[in-house]
Amino acid sequence: MPSVPTAPTPRFTIGELARRTGLPVKTIRFYSDEGLLPPTGRTHAGYRLYDTQAMARLELVKTLRELGLGLPEVERALGGQTTVAALAAVHVDAIEEQIRRLKLRRSVLRAVAKRGSELEEVKLMNRLASMSDEERRRLIDEFWDEMIEGLNVNQEFYDRMRSAKPELPDDPTAEQLEAWIEFAELVGDPDFRALIRRLSETHSAARDAGESMAPADQPDYTALFSRANEALASGLAPDSPEGRAIADELFNASAGERDPDDMLYRREVLTRFGQGGDPRAERYWQLLGIINGWPPIPTQAPAVQWLTEAMRAAIS
């Protein structure tokens, strides 16, 4: 029985491959020159020819390149030195990082447009926005290390202070980014650092004098602020009998072993309360709240002012 002749294997020139794959002739020739697409044969005139397997290989190269793989990685995958799955996993991580950086860049530009920032501020904003979470955490740790260095502090209290770290999302809002920039500027401000250092020194001196300064031993300022706000809303004056009574409660709650009626002690408490009521200290926590997406932290500045005046009235 005569044998049936087999159909000739299709052969394609670079031009035909280009028409079928949509790749430029120049690109296919480059891949071939680099060894990614060896020719299957040549014409009598020396032009390269490729079979269907070569076309399938070219389609794979095209796909891998579109996914962002470099030529060395494509070559290793085609040569069986690694798997496409392993390369994909690596590139997923790289793309996620690129997306994170692009989102941050977008947020910086939004904030720049909103604030009408000048060149120097733009540079600062971009530098601060590009900080990693680890760099932001280290900034806070270094801040609090300096604030308590060499002092006799209640470690539980200061551990709570430093435990709250700014966690800027990968895609922060313009408000969050602006809050982070303001926060970073605040903790780097010499006047603010001097304020917190003075508070820490006052805290340390109180412990040296025998006060525990533990959070559990401090007055319930939340309740006091609530009562001060109620007094403000009802129009009560700080030097009214009710105001003086609230001030006396604060003095009594802070006294420990000391005489709550002693004027020297009362002046010390008033000074300490005034330092702690500085609006910059409150702003520190409000900015952290915005950055971290906490519920809004309302200002207690009016209540602090009312309580301060009530304490002065109770001393006079």
Automatic annotation (TrEMBL):
<dbReference type="InterPro" id="IPR047057">
    <property type="entry name" value="MerR_fam"/>
</dbReference>
<keyword id="KW-0238">DNA-binding</keyword>
<protein>
    <submittedName>
        <fullName>DNA-binding transcriptional MerR regulator</fullName>
    </submittedName>
</protein>
<dbReference type="Pfam" id="PF13411">
    <property type="entry name" value="MerR_1"/>
</dbReference>
<dbReference type="InterPro" id="IPR000551">
    <property type="entry name" value="MerR-type_HTH_dom"/>
</dbReference>
<feature type="domain" description="HTH merR-type">
    <location>
        <begin position="11"/>
        <end position="80"/>
    </location>
</feature>
<dbReference type="InterPro" id="IPR009061">
    <property type="entry name" value="DNA-bd_dom_put_sf"/>
</dbReference>
<dbReference type="GO" id="GO:0003677">
    <property type="term" value="F:DNA binding"/>
</dbReference>
